[in-house]
């Protein structure tokens, strides 16, 4: 999904070097979670509990820093549109929501933008 980084997320734009990035996937990836019948491993994010796997890219992780990622996680636990939320790592989450994958990703970008704005 296309975004206007400078207009929509100005604090993220200030925090990164590359200014010509115009897609959400450069910052957050929200993929649908599904049962892989060929995988014998037990999944931390069961699809019935978490319909999206969300990954914060290295670019956004570096901009936020460890403290910013911890703050983001705390805020994500409070998002009312998320029925379930679980952080497996600082940059990897399970989300259950009626929102689309793009809407989930935009929610993370918006919160990240707010966190970076408060830092400056």
Can you walk me through this structure?
This protein has 120 residues and is of the alpha+beta class. It has one domain. 40% of the residues lie in helices and 20% in strands. The protein has helices spanning 5-8, 10-15, 58-76, 101-119, and strands at residues 28-32, 52-56, 82-89, 92-97. It has a 4-stranded antiparallel β-sheet with strand order 1-2-4-3. Helix 3 (58-76) crosses helix 4 (101-119). The radius of gyration is 14 Å and the shape is globular.
Briefly summarize what is shown.
The protein is α+β, with helices and mostly antiparallel strands and 120 residues long.
Write the SSE topology:
Blueprint: H1 5-8, H2 10-15, E1 28-32, E2 52-56, H3 58-76, E3 82-89, E4 92-97, H4 101-119
Antiparallel strand pairs: 1-2, 2-4, 3-4
Helix pairs in contact: 3-4
Profile the largest sheet. Answer: 4 strands, antiparallel
Question: What gyration radius follows from the Cα positions, in whole Å?
Answer: 14 Å
Helix-and-strand structural type: alpha+beta
The number of domains is 1
How many separate helices? 4
Tell me, rounded to a whole number, the average pLDDT. Answer: 92
N-to-C series of helices and strands: HHEEHEEH
Count the E strands.
Answer: 4
Unreliable residue stretches: none
Descriptive keywords:
alpha+beta, 120 residues, 40% helix, 4-stranded antiparallel β-sheet, single chain, globular, 4 strands
């Amino acid at each position: 999904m296309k975004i206007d980084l400078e207009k929509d997320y100005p604090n993220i734009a200030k925090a990164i070097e590359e200014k010509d990035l115009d897609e959400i996937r450069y910052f957050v990836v929200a993929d649908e979670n599904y049962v892989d019948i060929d995988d014998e491993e037990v999944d931390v994010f069961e699809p019935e509990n978490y319909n999206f796997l969300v990954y914060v890219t290295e670019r956004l992780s570096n901009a936020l820093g460890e403290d910013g990622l911890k703050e983001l996680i705390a805020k994500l636990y409070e998002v009312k549109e998320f029925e379930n939320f679980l952080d497996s790592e600082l940059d990897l989450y399970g989300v259950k929501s009626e929102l689309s994958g793009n809407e989930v990703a935009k929610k993370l970008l918006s919160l990240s933008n707010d966190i970076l704005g408060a830092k400056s």
